[in-house]
Structure formats: C-alpha cells, structure tokens
Design brief:
single chain; alpha/beta; Rossmann fold; Helicase, Ruva Protein, domain 3; Zinc Finger, Delta Prime, domain 3; 5-stranded parallel β-sheet; two-stranded parallel sheet; 7 strands; about 5% strand
C-alpha cells in the first residue's frame, strides 16, 4: 500500500509500447514513419519534428514508448528548465553529435516544452536548439503546447510539425478503469467519468486526480470527488480575448486569471488590437475599455520600476473586469480577432533593430558610454555628418569599425552627392 502512494501512477503506468499510447492514431503513424527514415539510414527532409498539442495528450509518452520498443537510447531534457545556450550546449549538443554509449543502434534527442524558452530572458537558447538540429546525427524531437509563437518561427521552418489533439473522454475512462483494476481499487464508474470530463482531455491530469483520491483506498465513492477542485483549463489567446470582451458578468471575465500560464502582457496587446472590432459602434464602450487598459499599463510600469508586485491584482482586475465592465456594450456578435499589429511589426523589424543595437554597442565601446546614450546622443551626429559629408562620415565609421552599408541600412541614411569635393577631402589629397 505504501508503494502505491509513493510511486506516481503517471510514471508507473506510462506506456511501454507504441500501441499502448492512447489516442491520436494518425499522429502516431506520422511520427513513426518519420523516425523509421532515420533508422533506415535515410535522413528525412526535416531533420527534427515538433510534436505539438495540449498537455497530457501523449506527446512525450509516445517518444518514451518508441525509444523503449525500438531499442534506442534517449537523451531527454526539459527545454523550459535547461534554457540557456551554455546549458543546452553542455547537455545536448555533444550528445547529438556523438554516437551512443549503451551500444544502441541510435538515440533520440528529446527537448520537451521548447515553447517555455523566452528569447528575451534565455539569451541564445533558441539559436542553440537550431544549431543542435542542423548538426545532429540523430533524430531530434521537440514538444510544445503552442508551436505558433512568433519566437519559434525559425524552429518551425526546420521541423516537421505533427499535431496531437485532446484525448477523448471514453479513452480516458478506459485508462482510469484499467488502473483501478490493477491497483485493486473499487471505483464508482460515475467518479471515473467525472474525473475524465474534468481533465479536459489531459490524460496525465486525470491519472494524477485519480491517484489523489484513490491511492491507499479500497473503494472510492462520489463523495470523495470533493477532494478535487476545479481544474482551470488552458485556452489559446483567441478564446481568452473572446471571454473577456463578450462576458456579461465581470466574474466570468476574471475567470481567465485562473489559467495555468496566462501571459497578461500579451493579453493587453490582444485586447488593444481587438476592442474596436468587438465593441463598435459604441464609442462609450470603446473609451471605457481603453481607459481600463491605460490604467493597467500605468500600474504595470510602476510595478516593474519599483518592484511593487503587491499592485499586480489591481492591474489584472483592470485588464479583465475593467474591460468587460465597459458601459453601453453592444449585443454579442461574432468577430474574427486579429493578431496584434505591434507584435507583427516588431517581429518583421527584429533584424533591423538588432543591427541598430550592434552598431550602438560598437559606438558605446569606443565612446565609453552606454548603448542608450550612443543611440540617443551619438548616432544622430554621425548620421548628420554622413549625410552631408560622406567622406568624413565614412572615415568616422571606419574608425569605429562599422561597415557603411550596415549603418546606412539600419538608420536609413542617404549620403548627399555633390560635385564639389569637400575641403576635408582636398586637404587629405594635398597631404598625400
């Protein structure tokens, strides 16, 4: 009995063969076909694959089962924990290049939850994963809940995408019933069905819930369900925005805050983009909604500036209840929401912004100042000089080690072409 309590049933009953993995038969066949190309010595067109779908739908379990059934070696890291470039190089890159240690015919490199890597906070992590994929001698498998995040664009281009969908209630009921039988637990079928429905297609969550109320017991009744609380389900941003903008009661709008990983800053951008479409033609509702977002933005700025995180609940209330409580809201109508223009623009201009920062860093090093000061106080003068006197501007850029074409492209500089040679150039010619 003690053993039943200590061992997580999710691990105890993890599928050991490919056929044991529940649900998504088409996705399973697609993955195995891709893997068999590697094992046959034929490198697939896409050297890596992204298994994507909601939590608990069998992505990681399928990789484990395939590894065990086919006699392969598994190198597994959770990419959301091992985030930095240095850690990924140390833990994964070498393993991807070298042969197996156990004598297995091949290995699988598994990077779990790659969408948990932040391009801003985990510098170089995504670039290193790209390097791992390109240099690997073995199949590389990535898993993600949301593969469409803008930061994963480069990875998507290198990978074959295989979608996994939620597990059906009937399939979850079958798995839970089998576990109860093997554990010797007499569980009311109504309890099993309630757990399956409450899991929202997450088999792992359903098994954990079952263990929490059944481990150490011989019988489970409907009364034991009180142990379980409401399981907040993870929604995509389209659904979250629709809930906030169409809720008739502020409590319904605030319910999205119980989601496991709500990105409230991203939510602000989505609401900012789509409020006019949902609330038109009521100008009063649009004004109220933007007033709430404006106040939330002010509070969030203060939180970051002063580290006053006790203010966060006020900002979240304004983002959800404040927007949903706008006066004179029009009746419900279906609206096709747009991806925030600001995020699209930032994504498109990323390379240009990065080039500006590289140039500013070179100037900052030479002038012994910060990158910010270099951008604000030094670049405008260099630009002015280069536009009106290209020869002198070229000399300055050369001294700083900045290519002219990079500077012109980054800051939109167009040199003024004149017939008359500058006094600076004539002086140089005389000295020569």
């Amino acid at each position: 009995m003690e053993e039943r309590i200590k061992v997580p049933w999710v691990e105890k009953y993890r599928p050991s063969t490919i056929d044991d993995v529940i649900g998504n038969p088409d996705s399973k066949r697609e993955f195995i076909a891709w893997l068999n190309k590697w094992l046959a010595g034929k490198t697939p067109e896409k050297k890596a694959v992204i298994l994507h779908g909601p939590p608990g739908c069998g992505k990681t379990s399928l990789v484990h089962a395939a590894t065990k059934q086919l006699g392969l070696e598994l190198v597994e890291v959770n990419a959301s924990d091992v985030r930095t470039s240095e850690a990924l190089r140390r833990r994964v890159l070498r393993a991807a290049i070298e042969g197996t240690l156990s004598g297995a015919r091949s290995k699988i490199i598994l990077l779990d939850e790659v969408d948990g890597i932040s391009p801003r906070e985990d510098a170089g992590g995504l670039e290193t994963i790209t390097e791992i994929i390109r240099s690997s001698r073995h199949p590389v498998v990535l898993t993600a809940n949301d593969p469409w995040h803008p930061s994963l664009r480069d990875l998507r281009n290198l990978c074959e995408l295989i979608e996994f969908k939620k597990i059906g209630v009937r399939e979850i009921v079958k798995v839970l019933s089998d576990i109860c039988k093997r554990e010797g637990v007499d569980c009311d079928p109504a309890v099993i069905k309630a757990i399956a429905e409450n899991s929202e297609g997450d088999l792992r969550a359903a098994i954990n819930d079952l263990q929490s109320i059944a481990a150490g017991r011989r019988a489970v009744t409907l009364g034991d369900l009180e142990i379980l609380g409401y399981r907040a389900k993870q929604l995509n941003m389209f659904e979250v925005v629709r809930i906030v903008l169409t809720s008739k009661r502020i409590e319904s709008a605030k319910a999205v805050l119980s989601m496991p990983s709500l990105d409230y800053e991203m939510l602000i951008q989505w609401l900012n983009e789509n409020i006019p479409y949902q609330y038109s033609p009521s100008l009063l509702a649009i004004a109220d909604a933007y007033e709430a977002l404006s106040k939330a933005d002010v509070i969030l700025a203060r939180i970051k500036r002063e580290q006053a995180w006790t203010l966060l609940p006020y900002a979240l209330d304004l983002i959800t209840a404040g927007v949903a409580g706008a006066r004179d809201k029009p009746p419900f109508k279906f609206v096709k929401y747009n991806f925030p223009y600001k995020l699209r623009a930032l994504s498109y201009s990323r390379e240009a912004r990065e080039e500006k920062i590289r140039i500013a860093r070179a100037i900052a090093r030479a002038c012994h100042t910060s990158v910010r000061i270099a951008l604000i106080e030094v670049v405008p003068y260099i630009r002015l000089i280069y536009e009106n006197n290209p020869e002198r501007g070229s000399l300055i850029l050369g001294t700083l080690g900045i290519p002219e074409d990079s500077f012109a492209r980054a800051f939109g500089v167009t040199a003024v072409k004149t017939r008359e040679t500058s006094s600076f150039t004539r002086a140089r010619s005389r000295r020569a």
